[in-house]
Amino acid sequence: MSASGPLLLLFVLLAFAPGLLWLVYFYRKDRFDPEPLPLVLGVFAAGAAAVAPAIALESPLEIFWRHLLPHGQLFYAINFLLNVALVEEGLKFGLVYGFLYPLRSFDEPVDGLIYASAVALGFASAENLIYMMQMGWDIILLRGLLTTLAHVLFACVWGMALGRARFEKDLSESARRTLILRGLMLAILVHALYNYLLMLNLQGGLLALMMLMSWMWYRTHRWIAWALEHSPFAPPSLGRLPED
């Protein structure tokens, strides 16, 4: 599907509106020492730009897996895990870990979640636009409500791992690296499972998908609460959640 002029502008607005609204929601969670807004918006833009290398990597990898595996459930499972989820989470993680994790402005645990949210929402927004151009504007009804949020929930897994690795006391360097790697691997697994359940498009698959999203939403907000409670800028009176 091609679009130009006012129609293209409408597509861009529809594609990016859900991501920007979710960005506001998560940015407001950074209560004590908010990250510079221009930097957060820059991370959002970098996430959107990361769609281009993701496509460049995923297309030949999909061809590779199609030739290696028979068509069917095994192909989809492997392709979602070792192609789509690995490439997309790897690129988003690489941007945050490589360019933002070393910054002085990364100065409290919740910052890992903020930067992860920004890069994931930028990525999801650019994907929204591509799908709308290919399939029509109405695809945003599904992607805007479900997939855009899913991307940020995936990224928050490794985002929280970065926050914990940076600020948890009494961790050795190897333990910090292991924590980060485990967070990235879990995000990849959850992303692949989400894609697989979405592909099934069956009643049982949709129920499992909603259960997965609900669990991810709950865990993300538990992680946010933990991060705020362990912020060096938190007021002394702030209560502590039990460690888990």
Q: What is the rounded distance between the termini?
A: 48 Å
Shape: globular
Helix/strand structural class: mainly alpha
Number of domains: 1
- Write down the secondary-structure element order: HHHHHHHH
Largest sheet: none
Helical content (DSSP H or I, runs of 4+): over 70%
Secondary structure blueprint with pairings:
Blueprint: H1 6-27, H2 37-49, H3 51-68, H4 73-100, H5 110-135, H6 140-167, H7 173-200, H8 203-229
Helix pairs in contact: 1-5, 1-6, 2-5, 3-4, 4-5, 4-6, 4-7, 5-6, 6-7, 6-8, 7-8
Question: Can you walk me through this structure?
Answer:
It is a single chain. Helix content is 78%, strand content 0%. The protein is mostly helical and 244 residues long. The protein has one domain. α4 packs across α5, α4 (73-100) crosses α6 (140-167) and α7 runs antiparallel to α8 (203-229). The longest helix is centred in the middle third of the chain and has 28 residues, at 73-100. It starts with 5 loop residues before the first helix and ends in a 15-residue tail after the last helix. The mean pLDDT is 90.
